[in-house]
């Protein structure tokens, strides 16, 4: 299929040259003299954009931000000799490559071909990732470890059964996610309603669950449905059920057994068809032995039981979860993200006391403060980096950071010795000019300070 290239260039002579040169290579070329003219013509089958830095109206640097917000089509920057720092800024904003005008014809062909090829590979990888996720997640719940596969097996088996379910596990392991998944698979037409028993004062929890009649107490000026009635024909999740008072446990036991409720201030029972799922991070059998949880209610709520293991016990899922959250946050922030090796090694070795919830929060926090979309070891929260028991992992991560700093310092030294002349600095370091350009971008070196 013929590749489509959009050229945004206000110099008609250069625009004509680019169109003729690339047209001879079999590309379908369209030329526009401004970003304002080009954007409405941008389509999903465009394979590449060649964008001049200096343009009338919206300039190229501003245009990159706009383009990257609406599409992932690769952008090659064209810049005049002597304004390479503009190209460096464009690369920070997401440009995929650049060339300096006037550009040799062969170099132009190579840069264009290489960029389009990289884009094709990227799209193929995304397709393969989508296929991979079909095998490695179950309705959006990620996991490849034997323990998670067993949970998926149980979920599928009990989802459409009208039995109560108790989900246990540490804080942050995803108990509510599993409960929501079971509701989705159950075929129930009503709503999924979650109530956190630990976040509502005991004096209010009863009316929150059972509702009340007008005049039941001061301020009750009209009838109010409780969460149980709201979940009629659906699923009610009682999160942190271990925090419920013994008094309310007795009232909940009556509801579970009789499938009807009585609102506060009411005089008649109301039948309700609700599937009850309970969740807790406590050991309810221990709570029973201490007299803090009713044994009869426990057996009514635990018609089936799923225990979700902590993240530290299913390290096989770590890499996939990190990748999953990175892609989710990329969509939210509209920014490409990646982890350097030191950061990845640390994340894979950390114990995650807050489990999946903590993992997502850490990645999101690091993504918000990192530079150029690269999450490094130093972008991770200080409370994690102060951990003292990571042994070799911490040493290796810190060593990687030191190596990065050494490379940056050597690069700056060479640039200063050559008064910012990149070609001479590259020769001094024994690397190519393009390689030094990449490293300047990688280390976010401001050439104005050299």
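Sequence proposed for the structure above (450 residues):
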């Amino acid at each position: 299929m013929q590749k489509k290239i959009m050229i945004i260039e206000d110099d008609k002579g250069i625009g004509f040259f680019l169109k003729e040169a690339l047209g001879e290579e079999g590309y379908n070329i369209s030329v526009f003299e401004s970003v304002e003219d080009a954007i409405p013509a941008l389509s999903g089958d465009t394979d590449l954009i060649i964008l001049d830095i200096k343009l009338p109206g919206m300039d190229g640097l501003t245009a990159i931000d706009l383009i990257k917000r609406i599409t992932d089509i690769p952008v090659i920057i064209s810049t005049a000799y002597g304004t390479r720092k503009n190209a460096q800024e464009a690369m920070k904003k997401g440009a995929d490559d650049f060339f300096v005008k006037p550009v040799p014809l062969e170099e132009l062909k190579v840069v264009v071909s290489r960029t389009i090829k990289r884009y094709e590979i990227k799209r193929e990888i995304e397709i393969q990732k989508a296929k991979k996720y079909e095998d490695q997640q179950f309705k959006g719940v990620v996991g490849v470890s034997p323990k998670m596969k067993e949970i998926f097996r149980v979920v599928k088996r009990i989802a459409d059964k009208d039995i109560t379910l108790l989900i246990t596990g540490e804080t942050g392991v995803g108990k509510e996610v599993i409960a929501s998944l079971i509701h989705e698979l159950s075929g129930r037409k009503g709503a999924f309603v979650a109530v956190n028993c630990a976040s509502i004062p005991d004096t209010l929890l009863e009316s929150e669950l059972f509702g009340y009649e007008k005049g039941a107490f001061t301020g009750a000026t009209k009838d109010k449905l409780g969460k149980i009635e709201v979940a009629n024909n659906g699923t009610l999740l009682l999160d942190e059920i271990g925090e419920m008072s013994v008094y309310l446990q007795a009232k909940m036991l009556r509801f579970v057994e009789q499938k009807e409720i009585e609102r506060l201030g009411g005089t008649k029972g109301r039948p309700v068809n609700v599937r009850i799922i309970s969740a807790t991070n406590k050991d309810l059998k221990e709570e029973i032995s201490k007299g803090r949880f009713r044994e009869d209610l426990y057996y009514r709520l635990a018609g089936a039981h799923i225990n979700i293991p902590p993240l530290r016990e299913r390290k096989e899922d770590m890499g996939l979860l990190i990748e999953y959250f990175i892609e989710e946050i990329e969509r939210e922030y509209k920014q490409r993200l990646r982890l350097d090796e030191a950061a990845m090694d640390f994340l894979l070795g950390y114990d995650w006391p807050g489990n999946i919830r903590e993992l997502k929060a850490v990645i999101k926090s690091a993504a918000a403060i990192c530079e150029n979309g690269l999450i490094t070891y130093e972008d991770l929260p200080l409370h994690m980096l102060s951990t003292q028991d990571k042994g070799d992992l911490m040493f290796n991560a810190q060593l990687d950071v030191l190596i990065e700093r050494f490379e940056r310092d050597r690069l700056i030294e060479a640039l200063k010795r050559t008064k910012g002349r990149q070609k001479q600095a590259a020769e001094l370091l024994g690397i190519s000019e393009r390689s030094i350009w990449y490293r300047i971008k990688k280390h976010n070196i401001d050439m104005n300070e050299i």
